[in-house]
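Appendix B. Raw example, untouched.
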Amino acid sequence: MIYFADIPCDHLAVLVRSLMAVPEYSGKGQIPEKEVLSLLPIRVDSIPNIENFIRNYVVLGTGSNGQIVARDKCLRVVNSH
């Protein structure tokens, strides 16, 4: 079974599961207590611009004008919120 997911283009995600860590105290403001991602998240619409992004051609079906073909890629992304 194949599922297609629709993610808003302005959604922030990371491509690999990163470690959560409490950031170091910068000397100003409150001392951080909440864990944050150790990697910076990227926008979902910038993922296809990555160099090693190879897409597969998939035939979704056959219509009156021929085959319906899509270029897709299966990626695991981690929510950054």
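End of appendix B.
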